[in-house]
Amino acid sequence: MRKFFSVAFKSLAGMFVYLIALFAFLAERQASGKLTMLAVMAACGAVAMLAGLALSGFAQWRRDTGIVLLAAAAFTAFLVLCAACMFGSDDVMKLMPPGSVDMFDSYLTGAAVLLGIAVLGGCLLRQAGPRVVNPA
Fold it and tell me: Using an 8 Å Cβ cutoff, are 83 and 22 in contact?
């Protein structure tokens, strides 16, 4: 049962990391509001990740954290690519109200946050070392 809750908390942490990366693409109309929102999401994600790691006894914490970060970054990149393809279609843009996609115009910040999450996840995964199999 502990393993189930550990995976559930790590998945929740991945969702928060995904939201951080996605919200980084939002326009910076009110920078303090955006930073506050990102900080709250980061705190919630850290608490969920720590809860998941605590339930697994912090065994292989680098590997688990790296997997969560890389998976969230890959999922966000996939969704951003899908959205870019959709918004690039004239047929889809005719169906949307004017100015509805203007809120996603912070590409540089979004790409930097997404790349930072992916690099951090990759570094943690590389430092994790080989998995030790316990023959019992």
Answer: no
pTM, rounded to two decimals = 0.86
Q: What does the pLDDT look like over 63-120, one tens digit per residue? A: 999 999 999 999 999 999 998 888 888 888 888 888 777 777 888 889 999 999 999 9
Q: Is the pLDDT of residue 29 over 70?
A: no
What distance in Å separates the CA atoms of residue 42 and residue 45, rounded to the nearest whole number? 5
How far CA 5 is from CA of 49, 112, 114, in Å, comes to 11, 32, 27
Q: What is the SS3 assignment for the chain?
A: CHHHHHHHHHHHHHHHHHHHHHHCCCCCCCHHHHHHHHHHHHHHHHHHHHHHHHHCCCCCHHHHHHHHHHHHHHHHHHHHHHHHHHHCCHHHHHHCCCCCCCCCCCHHHHHHHHHHHHHHHHHHHHHCCCCCCCCC
